[in-house]
Amino acid sequence: MPINQATSDAPALSVRRLCKSYGSKSVLRGLSFEVRRGEIFGLLGPNGAGKTTTLEIVEGLREASSGDIEILGLTHRKAHKEITARVGVSLQKASLWGRLKVGELVQLYRSFYKAPLPIDTLLEGLDLTAQAGMYLDSLSGGQYQRVVLCVAMVNNPEIVLLDEPTTGLDPDTRRMFWNILRDLREQGKTIILTTHYMEEAQVLSDRVGIIYKGELVCCDTPRQLIHSLRAGTAIVLQHDPRLPLDVVRAMPWCQEARITSQGELIVYSSEIRSGLTGLLELAAGYGIPTDSLNVREPTLEDVFLHYTGCSYSERAQ
Amino acid sequence: MKAVYHLCRAVLLLYVRDPVTVLLSLVLLVMMMVLFGLTTGDEQFKIASQVAVVDKTGAGQDLTKAIAGDEFLSGHIVEDGAAVAEAIRTARAAIGVVIDGTYKPGSMRTGPVQGVRIIESDTPSRWSRLAEDRLAKLLASRATSPTLPVPVTHLKINAVRNRYIDFIFPGVLSLAILQTCLSSATVLLHARKLGVLRNLQTTPMTPLQLFGGFFCGRCLVILLHVVVLTLVAKGIFHVHIEAPFGALLISSLLGVFTFTTMAAVIATVSPTFESGVLITQLLNFPMSFLCGVFIKMENLPVVIRLLADALPLTYFVNIMRGLITGGTTIPKLMPDVLMLGIWFVASLTTFIWISRLRRFKTN
Fold first, then answer.
1. What is the C-alpha separation between A57 and A17, in angstroms, rounded?
2. Which CATH superfamily is A230-297 part of?
3. What phi and psi, each to the nearest 5 degrees, are found at residue A253?
4. Which residues are CB-neighbours of B295 under 8 A, at least 6 positions away?
5. Which residues of A touch B187 (CB under 8 A)?
6. Is pLDDT larger for residue B136 or for residue A135?
7. How far apart are CA A205 and CA A196, in angstroms?
8. Does CATH place domain A5-224 in 3.40.50.300?
9. Closest CB to A112 among B3, B9, B195
10. What is the pLDDT of residue A101?
11. B3: nearest CB among A99, A104, A111
12. Considering the entire predicted model, what is its pTM?
């Protein structure tokens, strides 16, 4: 699809001071970020953080209370139809008519666009040729999700918006889906996806924005976000109230320590050897068992913990 | 147009691939018609055992007396041949006799009868056949005895059918249109519940194309119902359809627009799929029984009739029945057409108003 010259240099998506309220309840509070062309941008946050609302405003399904959104340099107010023609969308819990066959559904969606991709190309591209004559009801979760993506791709979009596309999929299928998205990026597509899977955001996204309570708390590459913590290795231990947090924080080998709502004590230490030994000795001194102790590199989970002060996994539930 | 065509096709496919819906919406209606048709279809209304006689000679008076003495027939004298024909056509009489002669009123014996014309329906019921037999015997034995043989001519005219099946067929057809239209509300609500409508909103498809596709798809479902019911009615019960196609199409479209707009209102006001189903049933149920589909309105208590007068199906049934079996034209049915039109305008206004309010709240 030819790109409008006037909008070819614009970022894929530009969100500025986006606010959304329902009555007195404020869902988005001045969200601002930009998505570059050709990148996979992950919008990460726990349930209720405002990810879907943000995406629905970007899709034109909701109106913002205030703020501006530009998609490929266009606004919904002035060029809604052009945006829908150049953007592919997969909604959260995307449901399609189960009693239609895959081929029929793709044909239906193709009919909405002026220059859709050939049906064979679409089905082959997502490995759905064998399923073309099958009813959607009879597909597995992974196949169904590929059909949803196929429907979002019929117009050969420049931007693909995916709202929690891998929720409910098993780990293998999820990884297969990630590969499909990487292939799309290779083709030059911009992919904006929301997810509440930390691992998915970290592994798949070129850049990640973390939303918490309607605010964007940080936005950068996963590596840079983790690096910005300047946190050393994370030592995780089942927390015991007998060991006060202040005592741990006062230790010279401790950069930072936090207790998650799941009852884990996470200690960050730049010197793994001294940190590990020190924590084991401290625990022994308080008579606390250390069977559950494990060591890992910092992840986006730690970034989330750092910026919000609470465990992501607890918030996500 | 491509989008409308594909969406329309999808809506039709979704219908025919749901056997339970097909069973409940179509087979039930066909079964109802077959059941009523086979059990009581031929003899529900015994209204056509009258004989209309034109008294030109005075012989009519005598014939009427003779008819009054007959255990099966009853007769009355009307103005002229045209009145007889009208009585037959509108099923107020099963058979009519016009006795032509030059005699003064009073007695058959004052002169010869010049001719007897027997007027009957082109599709006589068993009542009219019985009436004809009895009448022939009376004419032979009494009225024309001094001057027989007189020429007896038979004239067949297009008449309203009097069988019960002829009565319920337009009603069932109207009911099928109503039910299919109203069930569009649940189809829309189901699509909304699934998130399909939301998905479609992210495409360049305009609301007009979306509703156009849905509407056309549902119209095809209605057409399917109408065709099947008509084939059954004609094939099994030999129901004769009087109305010109154009009048029938216009009337049907008015009904379809009215009931579909009502369905759109239901779909808009219903917060959930389940509540939409209940509201649809709430409208469907009383209309099925009160609006003259199966029972003549005259046979209903006054209070029920007043209630029925407030329901749109009553007017739609009147229009369809008038056209299909009455051979009536749309201008003659104008009061019913107007009432149905008022329902359409009211539903459309409500739909637009609620849609705007809802859009405002959603955003």
1. 13
2. YebC, transcriptional regulation domain (3.30.70.980)
3. -85, -5
4. B289
5. none
6. A135
7. 13
8. yes
9. B3
10. 92
11. A111
12. 0.72
